[in-house]
Amino acid sequence: CPGSPTAGTVRDRRTREERRQCRAASREPPAGQSFRTKPGQNIRRLHWLYRCPVTNAQYRRFVDAAGGRPSRYGDEDRFNAPRQPVVGVNWDDMRAYRSWAGARLPSEAEWEYAARGPAGRRYPWGDAAPDETRAIFGQDWCTGGTAEVGGRPAGASWCGALDLAGNVWERCRDVWRDEADPGSLDGAPVPPDPWDGTRVVRGGSWNSRIECMEGAHRFKLFDCTVGSLGFRPIATAPVEIPGADVEGA
Question: Does the N-terminal or the C-terminal CB of the chain have fewer CB atoms within 10 Å?
Answer without folding.
Answer: N
